[in-house]
Amino acid sequence: MHNNKCLKENPNPNPNQPLLAYHFIQALTRINLTAHTTTSTKQRSHIIKHAAYVSMAFAAGNKRTWTHAVLLHNRFPLKTRFHRLSGSRRSFIMSLSRNKKTHRHAHLLRSLVPGGHAMEFSSLLMETANYIQYLTAQVRLMQCIVEKFDMHV
Amino acid sequence: MSSRRSRDITEEEINELISKLQSLLPETRRRGAGRASASKLLKETCNYIKSLHREVDDLSDRLSGLMATMDTNSAQAEIIRSLLRS
Question: Where does the IBH1-like N-terminal domain start and stop, copy by copy (chain A) (predicted)?
């Protein structure tokens, strides 16, 4: 059946796709039961988005800084906020990325990856790689679900 | 590259990590053969993550709209079954 293809297309073995699906669908079921006629579509969308990041972090496990940031500190992707770097951290980063453009992009990356500001540069790159893997898997999962809903409605 | 310091992270390791990141970005965003510069790659990564965040937002909106109209139990059971079957 074609619906399996969208999950199998994920070339990377790292994100555990069934686990991702399990957590997210569980959350969706809960949302459907509790937030029914009273919540607006926009409110529910926000709740679903929240559930997507939480279930994603859950599936990724607690060995990652970004999952801690999401689950424990409630750091979600919102509109971009820029944080000021502390002095010592700034000099450390500058020493690694000598040109200003790299420094600026690294700073932007830190604001995009949950918990990014607390990491060293090399950890940031590893966390980013993992975060992207899980984000793409989550997006594919949600696309699958939307497709199936479209078929049934 | 200039002097290598005696600490855990070397320039080479950073370059390795950067290559790994580059391999994760989708094909269409990779320009030309060989490795892009670090700053270009970081910029591509940032743009990619932003677009993924936007997709999550958009899909959440659509899911929310669909959940409002669907017939709950039967659809969900079918979805769960087919997704977990893979």
Answer: 23-71
